[in-house]
Amino acid sequence: MVGEDGASFVFSGPPPAGWDFRLPEPGEPADGGEAHRTLQKLVQSWSGRCRVQYLSKSSVHIVLCGGDPSLSAESRVWALLGNVVTPNGRVVPVGQSGRGSGISELEHETAAGGFARMLECINRSEPLPAGTTPAVLAPAAAAVLVHEAIGHFAEAAPNGRVNLNHRLGFRIATEIFGLRDDSLAPGGAAHYVVDDDGVLTRGATELVREGRMLQLLHSRESAHAMGVEPTGNARAASIWDSPIPRMSNLLCEPGQATEDEMLERMGNGLYFHSFAYGYGFGFRLEAQVRLAEEVRSGRRTGRYYSGGLIDEDRVVLTRAAELGCEAVHNSNAMCGKEGQLLYDVGTRAPAIRMNALRTRP
Hints:
Number of domains: 2
């Protein structure tokens, strides 16, 4: 609600009698028995020991105008968290999440077996060497880097406590990059027409054009502090949390090259299949390497590496040389900020060829 003084606030529980309407009850997140059976089939396809947790929650979002409900939307999100210890003792983090119950996604993973094959490769991998190397990032790994390097940099400061207008025009990536944020992007993990400040979304927000920051993502408070319009990106993990500027679906425009073409042009280096635990702090960012593969003379060799970290600057993507021709939604949509964990922060990215990427144990 927005009061006469312009202040906005959220509420939980029964409304005053004067509003004369009933808050709808959220639907059941998922059938527990079905989820248990689906999860059992999935983990039985993995080698090694695993401990995982399936989470699902459902909520109803209501916006009131003049005492009457004008918008009502149900939101369902899910997550699969935990780790697997391979027969050779490698600890592999598990992380998947998104919109809905997740049952169909888990069934698809069981049938496709992508994570099971990755576990087999990690089981026979070597420790990741430290140094600086040319690299090609698979779309899943690229999504983590784009999310951390650009997505969080594009979020305005919570409550507008710091004016970040100086970031506008800043070169955050090479000129091949164009990015936007869209809460209604088809296939995206996020899906909403009104944010947690009660602000209606107005379509996609263009964030980066030719590698330079064009706009920031705003809540009502941050927009007021910086003298601009809110972008519909106020998001809160629960009714007890204050909405802060967050991504919805971060979309990176694809390029022209196939992965085989990028590997050929790279020559020698590393192909990064998957990252985990992306984390940005100040002007630095890190990501754990789940699986990488040696490339020689433009060909993947089947020699695998795991463990270690990507240890980079926030402007790491100013060393990007080429983008793949197909952008893919990342299957892990979990994102934590300011102590608030969301399960539906989407990222869609193509493969990326990097002139250089720094790694350490």
